[in-house]
Automatic annotation (TrEMBL):
One Gene Ontology molecular-function label: ligase activity
Protein's recorded name: E3 ubiquitin/ISG15 ligase TRIM25
Keyword Ligase appears in the UniProt entry: yes
Domain B box-type: 125-166
Listed PANTHER family: B-BOX DOMAIN CONTAINING, E3 UBIQUITIN_ISG15 LIGASE TRIM25 ISOFORM X1
B30.2/SPRY domain span: 308-504
Keyword Membrane: no
Every RING-type domain range: 18-63
Organism: Triplophysa rosa (Cave loach)
Keywords, in A-Z order: Ligase, Metal-binding, Zinc, Zinc-finger
Gene Ontology terms: cellular component: cytoplasm
């Protein structure tokens, strides 16, 4: 059980113990049944519900352990031993009775029951009833975020509040969930298309690299063949020159043999004799066997092969980073009033004057910070950012306090880890108020953040030429809560800004 980071939460935050796994956790909203589970057990319960015969309906894991068979309130007493007839399948909150399949039929068919709210069988109605008036909750106060009964409204406690009926709230929430469901489906399709597109692009890139390697090797061989051919041609020219000289001697000797003037014969013989004998004693030039410089060919091929491997590795690294890149947008509700988040929620700029923004429980009210909408509790993730000015990039628990000064700055508590570039462009890593000065200074504005939740590692790197990564700092920890990305901006005169770069 990890408790190290639990006691640095906000003092107003209650610490709970999960009844299922006995682990401690912080802020939580109780279920209608009254049980409070840790986030991990809630996710497990959802997964189990989705894979069971209950379909997508969520059932509290604790209730499943505690609950027996809910008996139908309308079945005769003498039939109480018959499980098939007396097991309730629904509970009507209007009638406050549990109904078996047979006695549920009127509620499903008769118009008079059409407005009755049916839920899964309940053994305890107290959680669905107003403790002050003992009436069943049929309304929801949006301003106070609590269930109310008709008497609560009549007594005036919620007279000026926005109150809606449970059915209306159900319809609105289901409409919102339906829209979100469609957006998620579209996002999944886009992700699949992007993945397929990335793989196809990578396949084309790899094929291009292979083609270039084959072409390079072919060119190297052709170049060596041309050099060997040129040498053969040079040797052939020399052989032809020797043959021509020998033919000249042959013709000269033939003419001497046919000469009839002895004086001319003797003069010619004596004048050409030494030069002719030297040429006759010189062996005929025999060219070497034509061959290519195999050593040079091998060296050139090896160089091309090394270039090919380096390029393939670069492509694979780029593909890995593209596939690990997680979608990320900024939560405008968390942004300090001195921060301006763009319409597409992917860029934030430090302002000179405060924006007029509504109060929100998630908003940072002291430090100029904003966090991402997405939270991560497993897996490996990668993001690239464009940073400028005086900035602070952090991985933080989503539960970080947002109000007041103490314990809310990134890196100044046990639940956040950050990298800061100051006004003098010097870098520093922060965690739990401890500052680690870095000797490296970024040459550009391209920063990468790698998160491995399961192994507890956070790596900040500068993205250099050809997408190479230069590691700046690495944190190692053990995560006990969902994390998100955080962005802090200071010194507006430095044009401080952060942009989330979209991988294509």
């Amino acid at each position: 059980m990890h408790t190290e980071g639990l006691f640095v939460m906000s003092s107003v935050e209650e610490i709970h113990m999960c009844p299922m796994c006995r682990d401690l956790f912080g802020q939580a909203q109780p279920f209608p049944c009254g049980h409070i589970l840790c986030p991990a057990c809630v996710r497990d319960a959802w997964r189990q519900s989705a894979s069971s015969d209950r379909g997508r309906r969520f059932v509290c894991s604790r209730c499943l352990e505690e609950r027996g068979v809910v008996v139908c309130d309308c079945c005769p007493q003498e039939e109480s031993d018959d499980d098939q007839k007396c097991a309730a399948v629904k509970t009507c909150l209007r009638c406050e009775v549990s109904l078996c399949e047979q006695h549920l039929i009127p509620h499903l068919q008769r118009p008079a029951y059409r407005t009755h709210l049916l839920v899964e069988p309940l053994t305890d109605m107290s959680r669905r009833r107003c403790p002050a008036h003992r009436e069943v909750f049929r309304y929801y106060c949006i301003d106070d975020m609590e269930y109310v009964c008709a008497d609560c409204i009549l007594e005036g406690q919620h007279a000026q509040h926005l109150v809606k009926g449970m059915r209306k709230m159900e319809e609105e929430y289901k409409g919102t969930l339906q829209n979100r469901f469609k957006r998620v489906e579209e996002k999944l399709k886009q992700g699949e298309q992007i993945d397929v597109s990335q793989v196809l692009q990578m396949g084309s890139a790899l094929q291009a690299q292979v083609d270039r390697l084959v072409s390079a090797v072919t060119n190297i061989t052709e170049q060596e063949r041309q050099l060997a051919l040129e040498r053969v041609q040079e040797d052939f020219s020399r052989v032809r020159e020797d043959l021509k000289q020998t033919e000249n001697i042959h013709r000269f000797l033939g003419s001497l043999l046919e000469e009839s003037d002895p004086f001319l014969l003797i003069w010619a013989f004596q004048w050409e004799d030494s030069q002719m004998m030297a040429e006759l004693n010189t062996p005929v030039f025999t060219p070497a066997q034509p061959n290519m410089n195999k050593k040079r060919v091998v060296e050139n091929v090896e160089n091309k092969y090394r270039e090919f491997i380096a390029e393939i590795l670069r492509c694979l690294i780029e593909l890995k980073r593209d596939l690990l890149s997680s979608p990320l947008i900024m939560d405008r509700n968390s942004a300090h009033p001195l921060l301006n988040v763009s319409d597409h929620l992917r860029s934030v700029t430090r302002l000179q004057k405060r924006l007029s923004v509504p109060e929100h429980p998630d908003r940072f009210d002291h430090w100029c910070q904003v966090i991402s909408c997405q939270m991560f509790s497993s897996g490996t993730h990668y993001w690239e950012l464009e940073v400028e000015g005086f900035w602070d990039i952090a991985v933080t628990y989503h539960s970080i306090a947002r109000k007041a000064k103490e314990g809310t700055a990134f890196g100044c508590n046990k639940i956040s880890w950050s990298l800061t570039q100051q006004h003098d462009r010097k870098l520093a890593a922060w965690h739990n108020r401890k500052k680690t000065r870095l000797s490296t200074i970024m040459s550009g504005k391209h920063l990468a953040v790698s998160l491995d939740y399961d192994s507890g590692s956070i790596t900040f790197s500068e993205v250099g030429p050809s997408s190479t990564l230069l590691a700046l700092h690495k944190f190692s920890t053990t995560f006990t809560q969902p994390v998100c990305l955080g962005f802090g901006l200071y010194k507006p005169e430095l044009n401080s800004r952060v942009t989330i770069l979209k991988k294509i």
